[in-house]
Amino acid sequence: MNTNDKPISCDVLISHLPGWLTDDLSTAERAAIEGHLANCPACQQELATSRQLWQQMGTVPTPQPGPQVRTQFYAMLDEFEAEEKEARSGTLLGQSGALRWIRDRFSPKLIMRLAYSALLLGVGVLVGYWAQRQRTPEVAYQQRVDTLTAQVQEMREMMMLSLLENPSATERLRAVSYTKDIDDTDSQVIDALLMTLNNDPNVNVRLVTLEALADKAQDARVREGLVQSLTRQESPLVQVALADVMVKLQEKRSLKSLRQLLKQPGTNELVKTKLEKTIRQLS
Amino acid sequence: MLKVKSGDLNRMGLLFERYHRELFGFLYHMSSHADASEDMVQTVFYRMLKYRHTFTGEGEFRTWMYHLARNVLIDSEKQNRRSAQQYDVQAYAERIGGGPLADESLHKEQEMALLQEALGRLSADHREVLVMSRYQELTYNEIARILDTTEGAIKVRVHRAMNELKKIYLNSEYER
Questions:
Q1: Which residues of chain B approach chain A closer than 8 Å at the C-beta?
Q2: How far is the CA of A19 from the CAs of A14, A254, B26, B150, in angstroms?
Q3: Interface test with B, best of A47, A51, A62 (most B CBs within 10 A)
Q4: Which of B144, B127, B146, B2 is nearest to B66 (CA)?
Q5: Contact call for residues B74 and B81 (beta carbons, < 8 A)
Q6: TM segments (chain A) (predicted)?
Q7: Does residue A272 sit within a domain?
Q8: pLDDT tens, position by position, A94-109
Q9: Residues A157, A261: one domain?
Q10: Which residues on B lie below 8 Å from A82 (Cβ)?
């Protein structure tokens, strides 16, 4: 611009640019500008770009403030008036400056937020307290343990029952040993065990089963099953073991079965001696 | 305002109704943030009530209002210095780009967004005088009183601001 052949005039013209943009010029100024522009394409260009930009700036929209601005303002005004009144009466009562100091530093918004936080905290504490009263942790813990124990028992039972069907004797032995861990044996388990005691092809399995059943002899069904089992056993080992169990249980009902077994022709001589001894001990 | 000063706080409502839009416009063009501007409007009016004893009645109420508004803007800028909130022209261009706009109006919208961004990148001094004269339609004389300087100084500042804006805007247009 300053390379123009009329540098001073151009500078003057450019200095009028702000007034020219807002149409804030005296008649003389306007005339001078127009006179210069007629002979100076560079300044014409300069002013044209500026004006174009100025007009474009006008197209940038100015949004309106939201309606909440008004409500918030009147709320603030009310509060302010109330505070003023309070402050005036406060000074009469000799109120200390501390309260006002606090009020000055905490805007209404901040106070609302603080109050909200305090409320949330309070609700949290109450809920926690209520929950604790409702169910003390130890009770809840105990309940959970009980549920878990019950579930484990159930699973053991199921596993045991299915294992008893297993063709492998080892597996069946394992199944019988599981019953030692089951505290409240239900009829299903007892039936399964008695069935094994009477029918299992393997002597060892039968012996272990007998042992397991003897542990549960406080159950009437088990005792009855054992007594009935006496005449069905063929293996001398099991017969002797059964006889021992009868003595241990002091089961007098077994006398009849024992005598019957004694009279059976196929009974082993050693077993007979044992049976006689057992009968003597029981009667 | 003098009545407000002497204790008639209800008059404040009248001033609010008359000036809050203008004030919001100023704060919006200075900060490019509508939500923040609404909050600042609130703060300015609160300070008017609180510091009403500082209003001497010599100057115009409007001048005083802009004084307070500038201080509020400075405070909020201090707060936001870390989280610089710049007008995201890229997002804006994408948003309008997706719409079924005619080519011409799309072009205009993009130009407008670029111009708005260019305004945002001006130094605060320059931006201020342009916003005051272009959007607030204050005369250079009024601006000079608000900024406590002479009309000549304001005109020089407007001139420099226009040059800076031209540079930023034309560069950004060229970059496209």
A1: 9, 12-13, 16, 20-21, 24-25, 28-29, 34, 37-38, 41-42, 45-46, 49-50, 108, 111-112, 115-116, 119, 130, 133-135, 139-140, 154-156, 158-159, 162, 165-166, 169
A2: 10, 128, 21, 14
A3: A62
A4: B146
A5: no
A6: 110-131
A7: yes
A8: 455 666 666 666 677 7
A9: yes
A10: none
The answer, for A59 touching chain B at a CB cutoff of 8 Å, is: yes
In a domain, A66, yes or no: no
Task: Check A62 against B29: CB less than 8 A apart.
Answer: yes
Computed on alpha carbons and rounded to an integer, the radius of gyration of chain B in Å comes to 18
- A57 and B154: CB-CB below 8 Å? no
> Which of A57, A71, A81, A113 to mutate to probe the B interface, most B CBs <10 Å?
A57
User: Tens of pLDDT along B9-19?
Assistant: 777 888 888 89
Chain A nearest CA to B163, separation (Å): 8
Residues of A in contact with B162 (CB under 8 A): 17-18, 21, 50, 53-54
B89-175 matches B2-80 in CATH topology: no
Cα A142 from chain centroid (whole Å):
19
DSSP state, residue A218: T
The CATH number of residue A193's host domain is 1.25.10.10
Q: Which of A276, A121, A65 is nearest to B42 (CA)?
A: A65
A63 touches chain B (CB under 8 A): yes
Residue B109 Cα distances to B46, B91, B128, B170, B176, angstroms: 36, 13, 23, 16, 14
Task: Find out if CATH 2.130.10.10 is the number for domain B2-80.
Answer: no
- Chain B hits for A58, CB-CB cut-off 8 Å, are 134
Domain at B89-175: CATH code? 1.10.10.10
Q: How many residues in chain A? A: 283
The reported pTM is 0.51
Please tell me the predicted confidence (pLDDT) of residue A4: 39
Q: Would you call A94 an interface residue with chain B, using a CB distance cutoff of 8 Å?
A: no
d(CA A39, CA A6): 10
CB B128 within 8 A of CB B153: no
Mean pLDDT of chain A: 80
Asked whether B20 and A69 are in contact (CB, 8 A), the reply is: yes
- A76 contacts B140? CB cut-off 8 A: no
Residues of chain A with pLDDT under 70: 1-8, 89-106, 135-137, 183-185
Q: Which of A155, A151, A150, A173 is nearest to A163 (CA)?
A: A173
* Parent domain of A207: 150-282
